[in-house]
Amino acid sequence: MATRHFPDQPAAEEHVESKLSVDVRARGMSPAERAWRCALRAAGFQVAPVSIPVHPSQLLSPGGDQRAAEAAYRNFIAAEPENRMALDGLAFLLQHRGAVGEVLQVRRQRYAVEARWLGVPDEEIDSVVSFLAASLGDGKAPLVPPAAYVEKLFDEFSTTYDRRLLMDLKYRGPALLREAVSLALGDDAKDLDVLDLGCGTGLVGAELRSLARRQTGVDLSSAMLALARGRGVYDELQQAEIVRFLLDTAERFDLIVAGDVLNYVGELSPVFTGIARVLRPGGHCAITLELGEDADYRLREMRRYQHAGEYVRRTAADAGLALRLFDEVELRHQHDEPVRAWRCVWRHSDRSQLVRHSRHLAHRITADWLSQRFSRDTDNDQMRACRQGRPSHLVGSRFSRYQ
Ligand SMILES: C[S@@+](CC[C@H](N)C(=O)[O-])C[C@H]1O[C@@H](n2cnc3c(N)ncnc32)[C@H](O)[C@@H]1O
């Protein structure tokens, strides 16, 4: 059965939603759910006595007592505080009644449940809740999501990732990047030292392997990295956050790619500054980014960021990258609609003078960025180094070779 998204509810990552609904259905009916169904029927609603999903929009029918339905949900939640279906249902009814403050509160409770379910560590739950709330306009969006959220999300998603992306969502990122690299580099597209940022299960790496002399993949998610290793297209895999990797690594690359990754980043300047740092002179960088129009970047309800083209071009230029290709593509589908994206290629240019002027600003932004990404990080040497304008790679490595 297809997963239904509740109107005006958090439109979570599709795969998480489907996993949640399978979870709820597989669980069978608990005494609390049985009591909830009885209470709804007593309040005048038509609800099957067996475990058939009840969409809360069914509870808007005339003749039913909506306050009683709300109370039934509250009793359900009191008995099962981690029940996501009940929290979603209550939020839906509150939203319909226009009880804005209460909706936000219930949604935050729901986000905390979701974060625990994903396995986010306790000390990161608050920052994950704030991030998820901001995706629906409740609070200011952070510069970047908490790393723990991205890591656990993709750990969870890893086993179904290839099938979902390639079959269901018609993902074209790897082929689009390969084509962009060929267009920009021509005959020079061979024997390259390639860095694949957010390599995931290795779909992009597989596409680029024939151009590579040596290929390195970096990702936050150990489960995605395990699948990338199985693909056998990387010489080296690192479990790391991409900006930390870019600031710390002593390696240099001819080609850096990021396919469908930087949607998990809002403020891009630390990424571009890092890319400019590790590209060899004349090296290239090719990425995709979801297309946005109405702000430099905006966190959307699908919990990813969209970026405006002008912002992307300006931020990359500030980091000393020279534009080679910038076009609009259909990256994949979502809810059967094509997702529009930017496909971009830059060449490393020798604009060190300009970059020096903006270095202080870049350091400051990077420090704020890292502190939002790793909210409870006790070891802040790297952030301190950034704030003071010291090269952060002198303060010790924070990533590990993936075994
Ligand atoms: C949508 S997947 C794309 C994977 C791969 N590039 C592809 O095209 O199939 C995004 C991947 O980026 C990783 N990721 C997102 N933000 C990251 C970050 N800041 N540092 C490292 N990995 C990140 C996620 O763990 C995930 O594996």
Number of strands: 10
Question: For the report, how would you describe the main beta sheet?
Answer: 10 strands, mixed
Could you name the CATH topology of the largest domain?
Rossmann fold
Based on helices, strands and strand pairing, what is the structural class?
alpha/beta
Shape: elongated
Considering the protein shown, what is the CATH homologous superfamily of the largest domain?
Vaccinia Virus protein VP39
Please write the string of helix (H) and strand (E) elements.
HHHHHHHHEHEHEHEHEEEHEEHHE
What is the alpha-carbon Rg in Å? 23 Å
Fraction of residues in H or I helices: 40-55%
Name of the CATH architecture of the largest domain: 3-Layer(aba) Sandwich
Count the domains: 2
Bound molecules: S-adenosylmethionine
Total helical segments:
15
Percent of residues in β-strands? 15-25%
| Whole-number mean pLDDT | 85
Distance between the termini: 39 Å
CATH class of the largest domain: Alpha Beta
Low-confidence parts lasting 5 or more residues at pLDDT below 50? 1-24, 389-399
Layout of secondary structure:
Blueprint: H1 14-26, H2 31-42, H3 66-79, H4 84-97, H5 100-118, H6 125-134, H7 147-168, H8 173-185, E1 192-197, H9 203-208, E2 212-219, H10 222-231, E3 236-239, H11 242-248, E4 253-258, H12 269-278, E5 279-292, E6 297-299, E7 305-308, H13 309-318, E8 321-334, E9 337-348, H14 352-373, H15 381-387, E10 400-401
Parallel strand pairs: 1-2, 1-4, 2-3, 4-5, 5-7
Antiparallel strand pairs: 3-10, 5-9, 6-7, 8-9
The chain binds S-adenosylmethionine.
